[in-house]
Structure formats: C-alpha cells, structure tokens
Amino acid sequence: MYKTIGILTGGGDAPGLNAVIRAVVKTANGQFGMNVIGIEDGFEGLLGETRTRPLTQSDVRGLLPRGGTILGTRNRGRFVEHTKEGLATTSKEVYDEAVSNLSRFNVDALVVLGGEGTLTIAAEFDRLGVPVVGVPKTIDNDLACTELTFGFVTALDIATEALDRLHTTAESHDRVMILEVMGRNAGWIALHSGIAGGADVILIPELPFSMDSVADKIRARDNGGSNFSIIVAAEGAVVGQATCASTGWNRAILQASTGGHDWQGNSLCCAGSLAARRQAECLR
After folding, report:
1. Dihedral, CA of residue 231, residue 235, residue 238 and residue 244, to nearest 10
2. Rounded CA gap, 238 and 205, in Å?
C-alpha cells in the first residue's frame, strides 16, 4: 500500500479536472488513509523551486461543479523542448530532477490527469520507475485505447447547444452558418455534435473534402426549398481538392461562428461528473 501519492493536471484544461481531483483525494485519503500531495502547474511544479501542497478532504470540498483546476496546468515547459527543425526533444536532467524531488517529498506514485502530451511525459516517469496512473483528459476524445475521455461529453453538450442557437438565426436570415469546433486532428466533436444538432454538412479531419462537394450539398438544399444550411467544421478538417471559385454558389451569404476555449473551462455535465468520479476507482 502506498503511503503518499502525488496528483497533477497537465495540458489544456477541460471540464472535470476538479471533479477527478476531488474523487482521488476523497478515495485515497478518506478510504485508504493515504497522504495526497497536489503538484501545481503540471510537471513544472516538480522543477526548481517546487510548487506543491497537501490535499485533504476539506481542501476539495465544493469542487465537483467547478470548472478549471485548482492545481493549475501547463501545456508548455521544460519536459518537451523543440529543436530549430521543430522536432520534440527531452532532457534526461529534467526528468532526473523531477524524480529526485518526488523522492524528497516521499511520493510513492503519481496520478496524472492529461491528454496525449501529458500522458507521454507520464509514461517516461513510469519507465524511470515511478508508478503512474494516467487519467485520460481531453475534450478531443483522441487518446488511443480509450473509449471516452472526460471533458468530451461536456464539450459535446456545449457544441450541440451552439448549433441549436445557430439554427434559428440561419433560418431567420436565409444564411449558411458555419460552426468551427475544436478537436485538433480528430473529428469526434464535429461528428457527434453535428449529428445531434442536425447539421447539414459535417467536415472532419479523417475524411478530406472538396469545396465542390460542400457546394453541391448546399445547392441541393436550395433546390429542395430550404432557405438555410448549417455546416460544422472540425478545426483540423482538410480540403482535399478544390476551388472556391468553381463552386458557382447561388447564395454567397455565409456567416462563421467559432467555438473554442470557453468549452474547456465549463462546469461538468451529469455524464461527465459520473465519469470523473469513476476515475478514482483506479486506486483500488
């Protein structure tokens, strides 16, 4: 049985970080008598003048509905640096310093809340002999071997609500409305919110598209008597071939709306809250 565990959040914030912190502290401290040390500002809190603080059940009281993270987070730092050619590199000295500080704090294991980049760093700690539990966090839902990441469902709720609001304006003003959603190189948010919100065109990175095919779809709706259309575009969507000039659209009234970082800091939805609480089961 571990006596002391550390917990940190890394990468972009997402709905549910505080809920998972709360669940881990209540389970580790309340059920198993473990000490929990919160590491601030991601892995960077283990370097230089370290930034840590003990977490007890009273410290996490009232956290469940709060967005953000009480520990702070970083998506840049010394653990991943880039060469002039843009290649990612890591420094052994940085990891050695962090592992040494974990030993100084008597931390037996780490609970790491993060996405692809954060969990890649966590895997290196595991290779160096530090037991790690990775908690999959990203609104993009793009982690391998993970069916559902926390933060994703809440992002879907917000994107779908945005589509519902755009429908009324698009129909009232006879417009083609485009909603760009986050997701990096994965189209999960665009696909699911587009289906749930009744989008007419969904553009995702996994399927390169042509402007001609989009124009054909909008034109077909025009010919069918529809006076508006809704397009959902993932931020990583790729134009395969195409030319806007060749589309010949008979309506050029377009309006774009971008959903972004305001989705990351929201309070957790019901499904997300349940998922966050289940993360603490990994400690058993």
Report:
1. 50
2. 6
Confidence of residue 170 (pLDDT cuts 50, 70, 90): confident
* Candidates 13, 108, 126, 140; catalytic one: 140
d(CA 32, CA 266) in angstroms, rounded, equals 31
Give all domains of the chain, ordered by start, each with its CATH number: 4-150+268-283 (3.40.50.450), 153-263 (3.40.50.460)
Active site residue 222: no
Q: What is the pLDDT of residues 60-112, one digit of tens each?
A: 998 888 888 999 988 777 887 655 555 556 678 899 999 999 999 999 999 99
Q: Poorest-confidence range of 65-69, 163-167, 186-190, 241-245?
A: 241-245
Is the pTM higher than 0.90? The answer reads no
Reply yes or no on whether the pLDDT at 254 is more than 80: no
